Amino acid sequence: MSRILHLSDPHFGAVSREAAGTFLREAGGLAPDLTILSGDLTMRARRGELSAAKRFVDSLPTPLLVIPGNHDIPALNQPFDRFFAPFRRYRETISPALSPTLRVPGVHAVGVNSSIAFGRRIDWSTGHLNHADFRHIAAGFTNGTHAGDLRVLVLHHPLLAPPGHRRAVVQPLPRLLETMSRHRIDLVLCGHFHVSLAATIGTGWSTVVSQAPTVCSTRLQGEPPGFHLITTEADELSIELRQFDGNGFTPSHTKRFRRVADGWQAEDGRPEI
Fold first, then answer.
1. Assigned CATH for 2-266
2. pLDDT tens-digit map of 224-259
3. Which residues have C-beta within 8 Å of that of residue 174, sequence separation ≥ 6?
4. Label partner for 25 (CA 20 to 30 A): which of 71, 78, 202, 246?
5. CB–CB of 58/35 below 8 Å?
């Protein structure tokens, strides 16, 4: 059995100290085999925000994989850093690796940086993967994965828009889905929307998607801070949503999946939790 603690979008600079402190007190007791933080550690990559985020990251259970999000790039009022060294502060303070990989017994995780400083679209906050990113994903799952490992892809930007939301997902999504199918990726972890969602996606091969809410930010989108606790055993996988109620993070919903011939299938047939 493996247990993955998935959190996202703490957003230091707009953080609930109560939620952040409570989460850190409870996280160690969960005894995860792997902790994954899927981006947006800060609001504007200010030095004070990054320092606070670093203290938070250093307090998380290990082994730990962390990737940046679009808010971890300096804002437009800092044009030089944004356009010429967008991740310099993140690299100096949090980690030099923007697309890290990590293997623990039974789980092989490949992170990829989906955040960009600028692009052809008006909304630069949406995620994009380039040719080098796809080569990184392919190499990550071709090299170092052991037989029987759960194959986990980590990025900041989501693959699915929550029900009722009309927001952009990571692009190019068709190529990403094809890559996920080719490499038989079991699980994708992401964030960005601050809304919890657990579902399957894919054609030909079905992958479980865990889109975590914000773990401790005040920038809420209709639901309280929370995180996902993912448990895998043999051909079963569950995603438990735990939400902050002012006193602690309590279990809210659990979504269960089982392995089938062409990937994974939700036990209840419903996409959301």
1. 3.60.21.10
2. 999 999 999 989 999 999 999 999 999 999 999 999
3. none
4. 71
5. no
